[in-house]
Amino acid sequence: MTAQVIPETVTPEAVQGAARMLEVRVRRGEVFQTFAVARRPNQTVLDVVTEIQREQDPTLAYRFACRVGMCGSCGMTVNGRPRWTCRTRVAEAATGDALVLEPLRNLPVVKDLAVDMEPFFEKWRRAHGYFEPGEAPPEDFAPVRPDEPERRKADAGIECINCGVCYAACDVVAWNPDYLGPAALNRAWTLVNDVRDRGQEARLAAVAGDAGCHSCHSHMSCTEHCPKALSPTFAIAGLKRETGRAALRRLWRKA
């Protein structure tokens, strides 16, 4: 008679003990604090941070909202690269079983992994990144055909959701804190191509200064890191052309 083999009972504690662990180093001010988190299938970096905050250290500060890549608020520097943590899987970003998490660069730190976005949005204001209808806007909607060249140019950058990842990746912002940055200039470019806008002259003057589009060195860090696959570098190149044309128009008017 063949003996029946009874499988061993696997306890939750045994499973936990056998799990691969992830070493997570989190910048907290001037120092790093290390946490250990179990690796799990399809685990995102935001999952890791949330687990640390909920189960190990409730004082850890970070920011998130939608968790599905729509709000852009969960941006952090992950192993040296600015990313959306909700759409970044640990398997993609970790070096072996190690993660290093820091706040986004080029922005003041509020606490731990949360940064102050006010300077980012202030540069939008300085770049005139808002629609200007003019003193007497039309009463009805202005028709804009999808196949118009200007509309196509605007389409290339209109999906920006202001996450700040490109701003954190920008070398020029790191060198020159006054630089308007790729997101604000990308927004200005979409409005330059809005045929309904009546604030073009002031907008082009705003982005043509020392801290504007001509300070871009075209390193393309913003384009490389944009989670939406936009290309602020090309938008900035467009602004360089348009500000040059605006300068020529001013010269012709004076002649």
Automatic annotation (TrEMBL):
<keyword id="KW-0560">Oxidoreductase</keyword>
<keyword id="KW-0408">Iron</keyword>
<dbReference type="InterPro" id="IPR012675">
    <property type="entry name" value="Beta-grasp_dom_sf"/>
</dbReference>
<keyword id="KW-0003">3Fe-4S</keyword>
<feature type="domain" description="2Fe-2S ferredoxin-type">
    <location>
        <begin position="22"/>
        <end position="107"/>
    </location>
</feature>
<keyword id="KW-0004">4Fe-4S</keyword>
<dbReference type="InterPro" id="IPR036010">
    <property type="entry name" value="2Fe-2S_ferredoxin-like_sf"/>
</dbReference>
<dbReference type="InterPro" id="IPR025192">
    <property type="entry name" value="Succ_DH/fum_Rdtase_N"/>
</dbReference>
<dbReference type="InterPro" id="IPR001041">
    <property type="entry name" value="2Fe-2S_ferredoxin-type"/>
</dbReference>
<comment type="subunit">
    <text>Part of an enzyme complex containing four subunits: a flavoprotein, an iron-sulfur, cytochrome b-556, and a hydrophobic anchor protein.</text>
</comment>
<keyword id="KW-0411">Iron-sulfur</keyword>
<feature type="domain" description="4Fe-4S ferredoxin-type">
    <location>
        <begin position="150"/>
        <end position="180"/>
    </location>
</feature>
<dbReference type="InterPro" id="IPR009051">
    <property type="entry name" value="Helical_ferredxn"/>
</dbReference>
<keyword id="KW-0001">2Fe-2S</keyword>
<comment type="pathway">
    <text>Carbohydrate metabolism; tricarboxylic acid cycle; fumarate from succinate (bacterial route): step 1/1.</text>
</comment>
<dbReference type="Pfam" id="PF13534">
    <property type="entry name" value="Fer4_17"/>
</dbReference>
<comment type="similarity">
    <text>Belongs to the succinate dehydrogenase/fumarate reductase iron-sulfur protein family.</text>
</comment>
<dbReference type="Pfam" id="PF13085">
    <property type="entry name" value="Fer2_3"/>
</dbReference>
<dbReference type="InterPro" id="IPR006058">
    <property type="entry name" value="2Fe2S_fd_BS"/>
</dbReference>
<dbReference type="InterPro" id="IPR004489">
    <property type="entry name" value="Succ_DH/fum_Rdtase_Fe-S"/>
</dbReference>
<keyword id="KW-0479">Metal-binding</keyword>
<protein>
    <recommendedName>
        <fullName>Succinate dehydrogenase iron-sulfur subunit</fullName>
        <ecNumber>1.3.5.1</ecNumber>
    </recommendedName>
</protein>
<dbReference type="InterPro" id="IPR017896">
    <property type="entry name" value="4Fe4S_Fe-S-bd"/>
</dbReference>
<dbReference type="InterPro" id="IPR050573">
    <property type="entry name" value="SDH/FRD_Iron-Sulfur"/>
</dbReference>
